[in-house]
Design goal:
Pfam families: WD40. This is U4 U6 small nuclear ribonucleo. It is a single chain. It contains no helices and 25 strands. It is an all-beta fold. The strands form 7 sheets. Strands 3-4-5-6 form a 4-stranded antiparallel β-sheet, with no helix packed on it. Strands 7-8-9-10 form a 4-stranded antiparallel β-sheet, with no helix packed on it. Strands 11-12-13-14 form a 4-stranded antiparallel β-sheet, with no helix packed on it.
Amino acid sequence: MEGLCKLWSVPDCELIRTLRGHNCNVGAIVFHPQATLTQSETSVNMASCSTDGVVKLWDLKKRGMLHIEYHELHFIHLADFWLHVFDNSWRLWDLEVQEEILHQEGHSKSVYDASFQCDGSLLATGGMDSFGRVWDLRTGRCIMFLAGHQNSVLSVCFSPNGHQLATGSADNTVRIWDLRRQKCEYTISVHTDLVSRVLFEKTQGEYLVTASYDNSLKIWSHPGWTPIQTLCGHSGKIMGADISADDRYVATASFDRTFKLWAPEN
């Protein structure tokens, strides 16, 4: 929370470098989907945001490449290289030309998270108004309204199959939505605190990972949504989680000031 970003190696978790540039708390950092795979090390591979309304874009060689500023806003959160701000809207940016290409309103409270569909034509957003929305990026219009959660929607994730969507909420539940049938098809209610992250396995969507402020990480089978495993080890709230591009590892970050890397054999 001191304005630093740190880059670590996997799986030995050794510090590679510290990225300096933000002047206040960093709220989120994300990799480009092709970082370390097909993306050049000198291209934009990471994005980070801070509470002073600054987004910085990084390559894997230099300190920082460029930044986007929103000084009039209180907070910016990043998801899949789009960005949303705590002004009830979300914005889509073209990073090559550094221009905003879409600014969309629709939520009645702050937009907290989002997820691109696998082909990039749809975007799902979750809001602190307790609702989710699915947007057609070609028209900017909302094509599905996700109603059912009793508190803020804090995490959304598209399945690789493109027609299922998971949402995690401060009401301690996870909902699975079917875009073809335009309805919620299943509700998971086992966490004892808010759900901070939902993640589908990236290749086939064969399992779902849920992280919670109850300090646990749970893995669910897909289809069926039966519990596979509960991973415990953090002594504080799990604030964030991610799955590696090859599906070999799950990383979690906690309020206990640690991050953990989980592998199938663990």
